Amino acid sequence: MLIKDGIRMDGRKPDELRPIKIEAGVLHRAQGSCYLEWGGNKVMAAVYGPREAIPRHIQHPLKAVINARYNMVPFSVSDRKRPGPDRRSVEISKVTSEALEHVVFTGLFPRTMIDVCIEVLGAEAGTRCAGLTAAAVALADAGIPMRDLPVACAAGKIDGTVVLDLAGDEDCEGEADMPIAIAPRTEEILLMQMDGHMTYQEFEEALELALKGCREVSKLQKEALLRKYETKNEVAP
Amino acid sequence: MKRKIVLPGSVVGDMKSKKPGRGTFREGDTIYAAQLGILNDRGTYVSVIPLSGVYDPHAGDTVIGVVQETLRNAWMVDINAPYPAFLNVENVPWRVESGETAKFIQVDDVIIVTITGVDESRSIDLSMKCRSCRKVEGGTILDIQPSKVPRVIGKNSSMLSVLKQHTKCWMFVGQNGRIWIKGEEDNVNTLINAIRIIERESHTVGLTQRITKLLGG
């Protein structure tokens, strides 16, 4: 039983997000960085570059290459995760890179690469959304020119109800999970994946819900970036 | 004066009244910010002054470089940009025979150079044929964020003269975010401290006065 009388196991309503905390500029050696907590997820993202692309064969003569690297640390899950890239993290790295490539003005930095490191320190379903959201904040913090500040959020289905932002058990035992990433200004979809089954109506409903979630998270992202400068912004001369 | 901080994708103006400047882009009739930075919409152009980011080389900039490699007819110099920069033997004030580049400037030497050109493929040409260009001897190199360089220099080099005057140090600020400092140890430390404060609080107003006060002026 994952949902009872319209209330989920962790006390949320179907259209409610888990609590989110975002902090920009936490690492000093990175060009830009972000620490994000999204329910039980704890994610650190760092951006380095644009810098000379190495190895040289990955250089593109006309644009920068975005090299996102999603990694889960061994202690991020209850059973120790074997360190190093696996099928899943390679996939997430790829889709994240592609989502970010659509918003960054890569044409301004030919022959370079921009490294985006996403480290998952604690995982509780929806890490790719958390990772991408953190990466977007880190990119903006690094001063990389972008069309928009991308944001991600998931929706899914548990016990026949369409819900927003699946948490741990809901993800494992639910019927469907659909993470999406958007550019919030135009609401273009940058990433969409789904596992499980939903009917067409349920899909429409889930998409609408996920978009709503993205809009909420987008606000938090912007607040986090402004907060970094706000504190020192108006010091009297 | 309130400085407005804008984020990538936020609306900063429209094409009817303004033109898109640096750090912005247009879509249809609207101008958006492309970078996190301070909005500047005085004049006909609207632009965003970045608060972070790598050094973007431009012709005419004077920068501090570290020699990475000596080639037959050129030196390869690291100027803190994402691209390698070349200093050809024709662009130095000495006569250098082919293959004798290492006699004049060795690997790891620090030089002050000007950028003469950046071409389409972003390869950078350097020159040492100007008054402030030379090989640097002694002193310390300090790295700051390239976007903070204008603040360290200040309007009409007001900040720079405050720093030099109160610490009695020799200093040179490269556009690429490298600063060369030479002086007595205590003074150098005070100066580094002051520069770090400028870097941290670059987006605030009344910084020059505060720095003057800090340095005991």
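Residues 24 and 227 of chain A are 8 Å apart (CA to CA).
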